[in-house]
């Protein structure tokens, strides 16, 4: 008797899980883990060894995934809010990263040419100025979307097209290089700490966002506006401002991601930096099972989605998929994941499960 | 009344414009269509070189247009033909779609010279093409690598954007060599789309898999830099006389300094300084000579870390030089 009860509990748990938004990114993650385990458990080996600077650091696939997934996870936070509030996506984040990165390097170079021997400003000042500029560009997008009611994808197309040229213009078309090792800490390692710094930065962003969602009404208001703008307004909310705010927050995320990106190599290449990252960020939101038309959202699912994308990239490198075939493989996996995470498909799966259960009962 | 004012204003403007053209009569008018200088350090150097060479002091009146968009380039070319130019210098963003414009140019008697990139059009439509010999760049690099006399070559091959002329040329020679020799192996061959960060991830992935390698063949400097970063993180030595040979292309000044410091081993040149070749052709045409060769290859060489000199870096490097500036800065501080 208790045995059957346990079974139904388990079935109930499973149905709940399938219905839960986080199921798809979790399942994808699990699938990737299993595939890699079958191919050889060395994938999960983490080594602790000295780098060329003589510091002991951790390395291995799991560290690489967390490290290089950082920027995408940070962007996914902002993109989730924009998607939920405006029911559209910002496709200018890659270009905006180029701008933020360019501004940060410009401030650090000061008047000492593009290859200064020493940084001309404290890193924190450069970072804060980068934040302000990125938030201004976010505000620009936000005004177009919230006040002028332009489709988000069309509104952000402006910055998507112009952004990289603006980034190049900020540094007079030069490619600055910062040679001081301190600047490279934020995209690499701080001597004595064996874990890559981008992982910490991403963790801080997640904690801050979690606190904001827990202790403010931002999450509730954003969902309210996304679900039904009119009733949100009737309930005393200001949908215009909340949409605007989501773009400004995304701007801040862009600045942090841009900071990590330029720190990784201590330089910038305007046409290549964060190329196509907007597509990955949108994909992370979709993988997280969030409706791209706005409304309810799950931040955890989006972030998990971001790491799944990085996990997939790393897996494809591991299997040494040839250059020509790489985009095709990625496309196939993405199609499967996105279709599986579509609400209609999930509904179907859970109803199938229910039918099977009912059928089993009848037979029993 | 208003209409008349506008008419008057237009008249003044036209008169002024005519004055200007009259002044510039003895100058040779060239229209330069190039890719966006932001595309890369290479392109920035290329654009700068051309702008400096086709100046008024040198007897040219240059109209320039920069875009990575082929259609925009075609529109700009049409506009330039309407405005009237003597020569059209063209580095096309894409290889197709140029036939009509070039035919227009031919009927109007405008000579077209291609530089840096070729296009899919009949050879009769342009006077000459000044281009890099990308396959030769690859051959030079592979010949250099062979001269290192390793017992076994286990190569991480990081490719540029698939299908680009630089990628096809630079991959070709290596692929051939690996196919012909048993002791040449490709450990991994992967595109990093010219992106240093992707290159870093690819190399990190090879290191984590535990596969042995002793050569990194990166198809540009940026990707070589990313690859080296992965080596540094893993504590693998690289450069002259070390465990891993590092090869790059493009000859950025900062990359040549890495060579000089012995951190990298080889850098293959991709020559952006094309103005002199173009001016030579124009001078010949002005003097009424025939251009016999349709394709003119730029002189390009490879640099070895053990033999590179400051002069090489000064003469053949592109972009800004770090060390020099640091020195001048030190000098000014000393002077103070």
Walk me through what this model shows.
The complex is a heterodimer of chains A (364) and B (336). Chain A has 364 residues and is an all-alpha fold. Chain A has two domains: 61-307, ABC transporter involved in vitamin B12 uptake, BtuC; 321-364, no CATH class. Chain A has 16 helices and two strands. In chain A, strands 1-2 form a two-stranded antiparallel sheet. In chain A, helix 6 (123-147) packs antiparallel against helix 7. Chain B has two domains: 25-132 and 273-297, Response regulator (Rossmann fold, 3-Layer(aba) Sandwich); 134-270 and 306-326, 3-Layer(aba) Sandwich (Rossmann fold), CATH 3.40.50. By secondary structure, chain B is of the alpha/beta class. At the A-B interface, helix 3, helix 7, helix 12 and helix 14 of A face strand 7, helix 7, helix 8 and helix 12 of B.
Q: Which terms summarize this structure?
A:
heterodimer, A: 364 residues, mainly alpha, ABC transporter involved in vitamin B12 uptake, BtuC, 2 domains, two-stranded antiparallel sheet, 16 helices, 2 strands, 70% helix, globular, B: 336 residues, alpha/beta, Rossmann fold, 6-stranded parallel beta sheet, 6-stranded mixed beta sheet, 12 helices, 12 strands, 47% helix, elongated, disordered C terminus
Short summary of the structure?
The complex is a heterodimer of chains A (364) and B (336). With 364 residues, chain A is mainly alpha-helical.
């Amino acid at each position: 008797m208790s045995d059957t009860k346990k079974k139904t509990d388990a079935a109930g748990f499973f149905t709940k899980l399938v219905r839960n938004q986080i199921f798809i990114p979790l399942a994808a993650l699990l699938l990737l883990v299993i595939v890699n385990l079958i191919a050889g458990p060395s994938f999960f080996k983490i080594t602790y060894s000295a780098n060329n600077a003589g510091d002991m650091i951790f390395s291995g696939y799991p560290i690489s995934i967390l490290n290089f997934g950082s920027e995408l996870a940070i962007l996914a936070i902002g993109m989730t809010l924009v998607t939920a509030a405006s029911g559209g996506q910002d496709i200018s984040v890659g270009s905006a990263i180029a701008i933020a990165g360019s501004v940060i390097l410009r401030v650090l170079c000061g008047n000492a040419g593009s290859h200064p021997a020493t940084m001309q400003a404290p890193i924190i000042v450069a970072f804060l100025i980068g934040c302000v500029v990125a938030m201004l560009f976010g505000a620009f997008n936000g005004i177009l979307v919230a006040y002028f009611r332009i489709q988000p994808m069309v509104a952000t197309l402006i910055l998507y097209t112009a952004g990289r040229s603006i980034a190049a213009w900020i540094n007079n078309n030069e490619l600055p290089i910062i040679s001081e090792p301190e600047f490279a800490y934020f995209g690499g390692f701080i001597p004595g700490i064996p874990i890559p710094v981008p992982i910490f930065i991403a963790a801080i962003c997640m904690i801050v966002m979690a606190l904001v969602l827990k202790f403010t009404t931002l999450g509730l208001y954003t969902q309210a506006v996304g679900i039904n703008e009119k009733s949100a307004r009737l309930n005393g909310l200001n949908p215009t401002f909340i949409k605007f705010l989501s773009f400004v927050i995304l701007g801040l995320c862009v600045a942090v991601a841009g900071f990590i990106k330029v720190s990784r190599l201590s330089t910038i290449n305007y046409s290549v930096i964060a190329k196509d990252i907007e597509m990955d960020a949108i994909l992370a939101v979709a993988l997280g099972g969030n409706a791209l038309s706005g409304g309810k959202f799950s931040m955890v699912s989006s972030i998990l989605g971001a790491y799944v994308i990085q996990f997939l990239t790393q897996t494809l490198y591991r299997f040494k998929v040839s250059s020509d075939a790489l985009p095709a493989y990625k496309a196939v996996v993405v199609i499967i994941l996105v279709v599986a995470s579509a609400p209609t498909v999930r509904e179907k799966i859970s109803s199938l499960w229910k039918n099977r259960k009912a059928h089993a009962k009848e037979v029993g | 009344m208003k209409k008349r004012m506008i008419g008057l204003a237009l008249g003044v403007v036209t008169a002024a414009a005519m004055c200007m053209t009259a002044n510039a009569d003895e100058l040779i008018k060239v229209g330069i269509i190039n890719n966006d200088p932001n595309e890369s350090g290479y392109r920035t150097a290329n654009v700068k070189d051309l702008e400096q060479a086709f100046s008024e002091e040198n007897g040219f009146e240059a109209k320039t247009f920069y875009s990575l968009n082929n259609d925009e380039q075609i529109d700009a070319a049409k506009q330039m033909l309407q405005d009237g130019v003597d020569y059209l210098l063209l580095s096309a963003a894409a290889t197709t779609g140029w036939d009509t414009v070039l035919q227009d140019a031919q009927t109007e008697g405008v000579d077209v010279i291609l530089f840096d990139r070729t296009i899919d059009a009949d050879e009769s439509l342009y006077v000459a093409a000044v281009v890099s010999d990308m396959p030769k760049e690859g051959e030079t690099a592979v010949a250099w690598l062979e001269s290192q006399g390793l017992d076994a070559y286990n190569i991480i091959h990081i490719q540029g954007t698939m299908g680009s002329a630089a990628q096809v040329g630079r991959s070709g020679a290596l692929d051939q060599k690996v196919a012909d020799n048993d002791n040449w192996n490709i450990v991994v061959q992967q595109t990093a789309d010219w992106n240093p960060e992707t290159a870093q991830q690819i190399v990190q992935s090879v290191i984590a898999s535990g596969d042995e390698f002793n050569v990194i063949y990166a198809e540009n400097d940026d990707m070589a830099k990313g690859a080296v970063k992965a080596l540094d993180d893993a504590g693998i030595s690289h450069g002259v006389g070390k465990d891993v040979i590092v090869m790059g292309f493009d000859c950025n000044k900062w990359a040549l300094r890495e060579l000089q410091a012995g951190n990298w081993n080889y850098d293959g040149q991709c020559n952006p300084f094309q103005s002199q070749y173009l001016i030579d052709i124009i001078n010949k045409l002005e003097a009424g000579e025939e251009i016999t060769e349709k394709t003119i290859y730029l002189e390009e060489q490879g640099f070895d870390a053990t033999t590179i000199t400051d002069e090489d870096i000064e003469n053949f490097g592109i972009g800004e030089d770090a060390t020099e500036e640091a020195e001048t800065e030190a000098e000014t501080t000393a002077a103070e």
